[in-house]
């Protein structure tokens, strides 16, 4: 049992150390777009698994029950958010064009809000599923790991110097206008 746990920890450590390399976009020739490849997505998922497993201290038994449910959860949430993004973009288009009737805009707004409610319902449904297979402390750690992993990926993908430009823009926005 100890050897399995040690193996998982070593694998998690290896994957976490290789995470910066896995998250880097593949170099492309001039004029090519840098679309995520299946290989990069696979590396990202491996890094996610290692990060969550380590952060949540999942036992092999817990991991075997957790990952199928978590993958199902992510897929359902992704589909719901994709549909809701469409509703939001439609709402934005209507607003920018200014040609939609009040009735149509209200209908679109309700469809967008319904999508938000669906996200919430899915979160609650899967929370119940997670609590059936993991202690509450580990479910809390899952949500923390999700946010921390997301932030790590954002920081990794930011172009060098972007943080400085953003902080300069924030400072400029806070300065009072001189007339």
Percentage of residues in strands: under 5%
Helix/strand order, N-terminal first? HHHHHH
- Indicate how many domains the architecture comprises: 2
- Report mean pLDDT, rounded to a whole number: 78
Low-confidence stretches: 5-33
Provide the structure class: mainly alpha
Principal-axis shape? globular
User: Helical region count?
Assistant: 6
Q: What is the straight-line distance between the termini?
A: 72 Å
Major sheet size, sense and barrel closure? none
- Would you report the number of β strands? 0
Radius of gyration over all CA atoms, rounded: 21 Å
What is the helix fraction of residues, given as a range?
A: over 70%
């Amino acid at each position: 049992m100890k050897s399995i746990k040690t193996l998982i920890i070593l694998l998690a450590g290896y994957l976490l150390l290789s995470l910066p390399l896995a998250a880097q976009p593949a170099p492309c020739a001039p004029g090519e777009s840098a679309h995520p490849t299946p290989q990069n997505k696979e590396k990202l998922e491996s890094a996610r698994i290692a990060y969550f497993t380590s952060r949540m201290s999942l036992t092999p038994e817990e991991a075997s029950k957790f990952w199928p449910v978590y993958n199902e959860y992510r897929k359902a949430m992704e589909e719901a958010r994709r549909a809701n993004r469409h509703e939001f973009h439609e709402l934005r288009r209507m607003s920018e064009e200014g040609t939609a009737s009040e009735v149509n805009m209200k209908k679109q707004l309700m469809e967008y809000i319904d999508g938000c409610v669906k996200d919430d319902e899915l979160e609650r449904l899967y929370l119940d599923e997670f609590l059936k297979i993991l202690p509450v402390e580990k479910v809390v750690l899952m949500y923390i790991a999700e946010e921390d992993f997301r932030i790590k990926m954002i920081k990794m993908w930011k172009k060098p110097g972007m943080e400085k430009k953003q902080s300069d823009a924030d400072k400029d926005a806070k300065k009072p206008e001189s007339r």
